[in-house]
Amino acid sequence: MGEDEQVNVAPQMELLTSGAESVYSPQELHQRLIDSAGSGTPLRVKFGMDPTAPDIHLGHTVQLRKLRQFQDLGHKAVLIIGDYTARIGDPSGQDATRPVLSVEEIQSNAGTYFQQAGKILDTTAARLEVRHNGEWLDKLRFADVLRLAGQMTVARMMERDTFALRLQKEIPIGLHEFLYPLMQAYDSVRIRADVELGGSDQTFNNLCGRDIQR
Predict the structure, then answer these.
(1) What was the pLDDT predicted at 162?
(2) What is the pTM assigned to this prediction?
(3) What is the residue-wise DSSP string for 121-154?
(4) What is the domain count for the chain?
(5) Average pLDDT estimate for 74-85
(6) Beta bridge pairs of residue 42
(7) Domain co-membership, 28 together with 51
(8) Could you give the count of Cα atoms lying within 13 Å of 24 in the half-sphere of its Cβ?
(9) What domain range is 64 assigned to?
(10) Which contiguous run of DSSP H or E holds residue 184?
(11) Whether residue 61 is found in the same domain as residue 157
(12) Do 47 and 4 fall into the same domain?
C-alpha cells in the first residue's frame, strides 16, 4: 500500500491500542488496518460473551467500549453470544469446574446480555452483527469435534496457567474443559474474525482462535 494509506491508519492504531494491556501483534493489526483502508472493506471485530450470569460485568463493558471504538472508525462488530459454550463454562481463571447451567437459564441471561450490550454498541445493521454460537456448534458431528481436537495438543493446552495450576494442586480437570478453547476458536473461523477482543484471561483462548484460523 502507499505511504499515504499507512499514515492514515496511524490515528486508528493510536486509538485502538490505547488502554490495551497487550496486542497480538501490533504489526499485524497495523497491516490489517492498512488493508482495510485500501480495499474499503471494514474489519470484522469479534467479541464473545457467555451468558453465565443475569447481567454483564465490568470487564464486559470495557471490551464493549473498545468494540464501539472500532465501530466508530467504520469497522463491523461481531458480537458472539455464547449460548452453547455457556453449557461448558469457560475454565479461564477457575480453580474448579464451573457448575452446569440449564438451557432456560442460559436463554434468559442471553436476552439480558444483548439488551445491555446494545446500550454501548452501535446497533445498526451496518455496524453490528449478533450471532449465537449454538447456530454452528449445535450442528457439529463427533467426527467434526475430533478433527477440531486434532489441531491442538495436550502439551499446548497445559501451557494455560489455569490448567497447569489445577494439575499442580491435583484439582480435577474435565475433558470438556479442554474443548472450550477449541469451541471458542471455531467461533472465530465461522464468523471470519479479523480482530478479536478479550480480557487478559482470554489470551489463551483468543490465540487458539488465531491458530485454528490459519
Answers:
(1) 86
(2) 0.88
(3) S--STTTEEEEETHHHHTT--HHHHHHHHTTS-H
(4) 2
(5) 96
(6) none
(7) no
(8) 15
(9) 43-213
(10) helix 175-191
(11) yes
(12) no
